Amino acid sequence: MSEEKQLSPTAKRDRGIRLTVLAIVSIAIILVGGFFYAFTRARVMTMEELKSQGAYLYENPRLLPNFTLENDRGERITPTTFQGQWSVVFFGFTYCPDVCPTTLAQLKAFYLELDPEVQADTQIWLASVDPARDTPEQLHSYLDFFHPAFRGITGDFLEIHRFATSLNIPFTKVPGGGSNYLVEHSANVALINPKGHSVGFFKAPLEISKMKRAYLSIREYY
Questions:
Q1: Which stretches of the chain drop beneath a pLDDT of 50?
Q2: How many Å apart are CA 107 and CA 143, to the nearest integer?
Q3: DSSP state of 153
Q4: What are the φ/ψ torsions at residue 184 (nearest 5 degrees)?
Q5: Burial environment of residue 113 by CB neighbours within 10 A (0 to 12, 13 to 18, 19 or more)
Q6: Best CA proximity match to 64, nearest among 141, 134, 168
Q7: Exposed e or buried b for every residue in 121-145, given b needs 16+ CB within 10 A?
Q8: DSSP code for 81
Q9: What is the pLDDT of residue 114?
């Protein structure tokens, strides 16, 4: 005789109850899991909503021009370097008295707020607007103070200028000052997507909570 026929009516009833309860629990787990995913997943904001968070996206992503620079480890930097990850790029310099250390401290706070899997494909960059003084070694030592994962960019002035212009980040050397000259530059922070395209920027002054919400939303676009 089959197992089904050997079961008593009471056993059959209990087995049916167990199967029903199991089915209900399974459905509940699926529904709760779906709700939790929808709740935790970043909501895609409209352009206007992003602006309210301090993020400005271009209507069309912009290709980076050809350039050759180097990072704080002396490694070659080209447009292809920015492919395969999200890049948050701040243009500043190590001799900057206030804006640069403040912004880098904010970027550190922003970076530490990200979940590990988001951190893993988010690179924070300091691109020097003072390449004459900001050697790779100088940049490396400076950035290590903020976060060891942060990378620097330096190199030929014209190449830096071409890169900054493509990201809509202006800068200019302040006349005079001798060897202690300053460089005026935008405090906006540029954003490059994993395809290596400039997609927009975060407007200064940065607000960490808003920047994080906007960044997670922007990631859903691409």
A1: 1-2, 21, 25, 28, 30-41
A2: 11
A3: E
A4: -80, 135
A5: middle
A6: 168
A7: ebbbbbbbbbbeebbbebbbebbee
A8: G
A9: 98
* Site of tokens 């980076």: 64
| Mean per-residue pLDDT of the chain | 87
Name the burial class of residue 203, with classes exposed (0-12), middle (13-18) and buried (19+) by CB atoms within 10 angstroms of its CB. middle
Residue with tokens 């399974």: 26
Q: What is the pLDDT of residues 114-149, one digit of tens each?
A: 999 999 999 999 999 999 999 999 999 999 999 999
Radius of gyration of the chain (CA): 26
Q: 177 near 93, Cβ under 8 Å?
A: no
Of the candidates 186, 214, 196, 217, the one whose C-alpha atom is nearest the C-alpha of residue 61 is 196
Q: What is the C-alpha separation between 51 and 151, in angstroms, rounded? A: 27
Helix, strand or coil, per DSSP, at residue 126: strand
Amino acid at 46: T
pTM for this entry: 0.80
Q: How many residues does this entry show for the chain?
A: 222
Number of H helices, E strands in the chain: 8, 10
Amino acid at residue number 116: P
Q: How far apart are CA 137 and CA 50, in angstroms?
A: 37
Between CA 194 and CA 197 the distance in angstroms is: 7
